[in-house]
Design goal:
Strand content: 15-25%
Oligomer: single chain
Number of helices: 4
Helix content: 25-40%
Strand order of the largest sheet: 2-1-3-4-5
Structural class: alpha+beta
CATH class: Alpha Beta
Radius of gyration: 14 Å
Shape: globular
Number of domains: 1
Order of helices and strands: HEEHEHEEH
Length: 130
């Protein structure tokens, strides 16, 4: 699947966003270890801390469905400037081995970045020495 096709899946997921407070519709499409595509959208809550980001939504759905790692995450925001994953989502991506994050600029251009660029000097399971 091309980066552009993955971004299309993310944009379609963003259409299902529940964002009555921010009006900031975000969708994500991920590629799991077996090549499956899983999508997610942000789901807001009046108690803002209970909201869930599109990336976390897609990743946790994939893990609950049996995936063990995620290779790529695409993120699209339908409203306003392009968005990058929040710090919490970056840490979730780190936990499940994401290597590439594909963003889309307002003019529709594809912008791939590495998770290392988004989360340098990250903390991971190997740091726990368990």
């Amino acid at each position: 699947m091309t980066d552009e096709e993955l971004l299309t899946h993310a944009a379609e997921a963003a259409e299902g966003s529940y964002s009555p407070y921010s009006h900031f519709r975000v969708g994500s499409a991920i590629v799991t270890d077996d090549g499956s595509i899983i999508t997610g959208a942000n789901v807001e809550n009046a108690a803002f801390g209970a909201s869930i980001c599109a990336e976390a939504n897609a990743i946790t759905s994939a893990i609950a469905g049996g995936a063990t790692s995620i290779s790529t995450v695409a993120v699209v925001c339908l409203d306003g400037d392009p968005c990058t994953p929040c710090g919490n989502c970056r840490q979730i991506m780190r936990e499940f081995g994401v290597e590439r994050v594909i963003l889309q600029t307002p003019d529709g251009a594809t912008h791939p970045v590495s998770l290392e660029d988004l989360l340098p000097m990250s903390f991971g399971p190997e740091a726990l020495d368990i």
